[in-house]
Amino acid sequence: MLNRYKINILSTQANKGLDIQLKQGLYILATMNLYEEIQQFLIESEQRANRPLLTILGPTGSGKTALSIKLAKVFNGEIISADSRQIYKHMDIGTDKIPEMKQEGITHHLLDIADPKDEFTLSDYKRMATKAINEIHTRRKLPILCGGTGLYINTIIENYQLPQIPPQVELRQKLAQYYEENGAEALHKLLEECDPETAAKIHPNNVRYVVRALEINMVSGQTKRDLKGDRLFNVFSIGIDWPREELYERINRRVDDQIARGLLNEVKSLLLRGYNEKIPSMSSLGYLELVEYIKGGCSLEAATEMIKQNTRNYAKRQMTWFRRYKDVYWIPGQELENMLNLDLKNSINN
Q1: Do residues 95 and 86 touch, judged by C-beta distance below 8 A?
Q2: CA dihedral defined by 307, 310, 311, 316, rounded to 10 degrees?
Q3: Contact 144, 78 (CB under 8 A)
Q4: Which stretches does DSSP call E strand in 74-130?
Q5: Which residues contact 134 (CB under 8 A, 6 or more apart)?
Q6: pLDDT tens sequence across 199-223
Q7: What is the three-class DSSP state of 306?
């Protein structure tokens, strides 16, 4: 039955007699344990006629992308992005979007699908992600949902029944005025008061998403908790857990690398294309801070430090939220790095 996933690991029976070298033994065992858990999950999904969905979640900078590629190669998978910023074209360095040359031949979905000025709703994401997952199943491959946008992940896992509420022009104008007068944090607090679950998953700077969530709540009186449907997929979730200080160091290094790779020029290019700081996509981490520098509001060093601080704060909120998830297979970050560098088949054969 599992041949449909073309699992490229040795059988459990063969693994029992392995003479594992001491140096790599613990990492081999940890990797084998993860693979066997996924294998058992796929067996049970097949037996119950449930459509499987592998989910990789964790804070920004934790190593989700690298793990997703590793597992896609082992289990014949395709990857669906669950990142609310990687959907945008022309926004590559700041969103840490994986370039095609580093995708190792693995098909990726929901990258570069929207223009930065376009409105892209949660309903749009659910429709496109569900379609991609179903098409992956028809190709008899394993869909892997990977990202750090909790709202996107929950929408797919819980099959939220999103209300079809058209834009409320007058209400949006009032909320926009409130935002202009009081700022993003104050607007976000309004959402916290009426729908704390959704507020926990939306960054305060993502004003468009905050406004849309308020719009849905004010018009329908419903929160996301009220809108869960029957699950469409059998889900196996993998989370990546770093000690806070180590994660923060990874984030700091990543921001320095983004600056070195030309993030400032990317932001300048977006501005030249007519995308200003008032559109929601440009409120993304790394972009808003550099726009402030370009406008003369601060030094480049100060903008860089602000990106680091804001990203660390975002990662903290992500982990607070993801720790509420049930039935997550958590991988320690240090263990993950060794697993990614491990050639399990060659290590076993040697």
Answers
A1: yes
A2: 160
A3: yes
A4: 77-81, 108-109
A5: none
A6: 877 878 778 788 888 988 888 777 6
A7: helix
For residues 187 and 211, the answer to whether their CB atoms sit within 8 Å is yes
Query: Tokens in use for 87?
Result: 């959907």
Phi-psi region of 309 (alpha: psi -120 to 50; beta: other; left: phi over 0): alpha
Distance CA 238, CA 326 (A): 11
- The rounded distance, in Å, linking the Cα atoms of 94 and 271 is 14
E-strand ranges in the chain read 52-57, 77-81, 108-109, 142-147, 234-241, 328-332
Going by CATH, does the domain composed of 2-161+228-349 fall within 3.40.50.300?
Answer: yes
Tens-digit pLDDT profile for residues 88-126? 999 999 999 999 999 999 999 999 999 999 988 888 999
Burial of 34 (0-12, 13-18, 19+ CB in 10 A): buried
Domain map of the chain by residue range?
Answer: 2-161+228-349, 167-227
DSSP labels for 25-63? HHHHHHHHHHHHHHHHHHHHHHHTTPPEEEEEE--TTSS
Q: Return the biggest CA–CA distance within the chain.
A: 70
Cβ neighbours of residue 198 closer than 8 Å, sequence gap 6 or more: 151, 191, 213, 217, 223, 224
Pick the CATH number of 167-227 from 1.10.20.140, 3.30.390.80, 3.20.20.10, 3.40.50.720: 1.10.20.140
The alpha-carbon radius of gyration of the chain (Å, integer) is 21
| Measured CA distances, 225 to 7, 228, 287 (Å) | 37, 6, 32
The token duo for 159 is 């099959």
Residue 88 neighbours by CB under 8 Å, 6+ apart: 95, 112, 114, 115, 116, 281
